[in-house]
Amino acid sequence: MGESSPVGIRRIHHVAFAHSDDTVVRSLGEVLGLACAVEEEGPGFVERMFRADSSFVQTLEATGPGVIDDFLARRGPALHHVAFEVADIDRAVAWLSGEGVRLVDSTARPGGGGTRVAFIHPSAFGGLLVELVEESRRKTA
Amino acid sequence: MGESSPVGIRRIHHVAFAHSDDTVVRSLGEVLGLACAVEEEGPGFVERMFRADSSFVQTLEATGPGVIDDFLARRGPALHHVAFEVADIDRAVAWLSGEGVRLVDSTARPGGGGTRVAFIHPSAFGGLLVELVEESRRKTA
User: What is the ipTM of this complex?
Assistant: First the structure.
């Protein structure tokens, strides 16, 4: 591994915060002046993306049973994960697997806003949950 | 408040993760290929900044009693705060105070790497700890 890592991090894509009341959503807009660029429903949560230059703050509001509700029950409202944009998520995931890095997603899957995503298991980063995001659509052969 | 917020967020400056073992530091370098740009000592912790384009992942490693050790005792290794770069931190803090937004720091104070920083109280963001960072040195009159 080391400097030869071919994961190819481009930038922080987003940092995600899990919550159940609307204080954070209101304050990101009214206090910080960030605009909500996208709002989408996931399984048991509503996801909102607040743009800050080339990155986003993602809010994950629990609306029913699911992973966000489970997280809130354990931790309360808290930062949930950090996501990095990569150029080629298939290449990144294949390399991580080959190196024995524990993954939540063994292959990339569809994420919000037409992205493709994969989560690395937090045990690989000492408790930090890392998501990789490819912005572009699936390459055609 | 609303769209008239003069806080003037430029970008995500960093997202911070508190920890006590070195797994996250090793993995940010070896797995993701991020370089540690700065390492500085704080009161009871070592702070490292891993560059990802124009933002950083900041790791806060507890080395003795202090706020990071306290946080780890309550939460375990976890994301700690998100920091935004602003152009004029004195103006931002003055406006937040005037609007009644609860602050941890009532005036800006020196941060790492020659920055000036102020934390907003997490109660203002539903549990999310937000830091404001001004990169440039103090303006002279």
Answer: 0.94
